[in-house]
Amino acid sequence: MAEKSDDQIKRDMWKKMADSPFLMVGLTDAHQHSEPLTAQLDEDQVDTLWFFVGKDNRVAKGGQAMAQFVSKGHDFFACLSGTISQDNDRAMIDKLWNKQVEAWFDGGKDDPNLALVRLDIDSAELWETDLSLSGRVKMLFGGTIKAGESGSHAKVETTAA
């Protein structure tokens, strides 16, 4: 199996993330564990993930951050590095608001504890597993899997395809 291009891997990441937008997110200099957050995706925003959080949430203060993503089928993995900042722009809140977010905030869009934060992605490392038939057979019987049989990998400065 031939390795995919970086652009194809990036497109695959956004498709997989749209299907299952759950990431582990944490501030890198806070010495705290990452926590699960649901990303709100905006196709108009390249290299940006949005999260609705409480103002008392550990990522609400912002700073350097890392986010890890594993696709629903466990065939795609991403580690995203960037900066989190609050961006309580009402137009963006209106654009991203949905029933799942509403369930977390009793006061709706005007909840006094509501914060919209953005993760501006500076770099990413992406892995897509797509074992070939021979690779799957080798896994079953303990053989050595060669690089071309395992999938694709990319280190990128932008997640835009």
Structure description:
Strands 1, 2, 3, 4, 5, 6 and 7 form a 7-stranded antiparallel sheet that branches. With 161 residues, the protein is an alpha+beta fold. The protein has helices spanning 6-19, 90-96, 99-102, 133-141, and strands at 22-27, 35-38, 48-54, 63-70, 76-86, 114-129, 151-156. It has 4 helices and 7 strands. It has one domain (6-156): Pnp Oxidase, Chain A (Roll), CATH 2.30.110.10. Residues 11-139 form the General stress protein FMN-binding split barrel domain.
Overall SS class: alpha+beta
Give the name of the CATH superfamily: Electron Transport, Fmn-binding Protein, Chain A
* Low-confidence segments: none
Order of helices and strands: HEEEEEHHEHE
Largest sheet: 7 strands, antiparallel
The multimeric state of the shown protein is single chain
**DSSP helix count?**
4
State the total count of DSSP E strands: 7
Q: What CATH architecture would you give?
A: Roll
What is the level 1 CATH name?
A: Mainly Beta
In whole angstroms, how far apart are the ends? 21 Å
Number of domains: 1
Strand content: 35-45%
Helix content: 10-25%
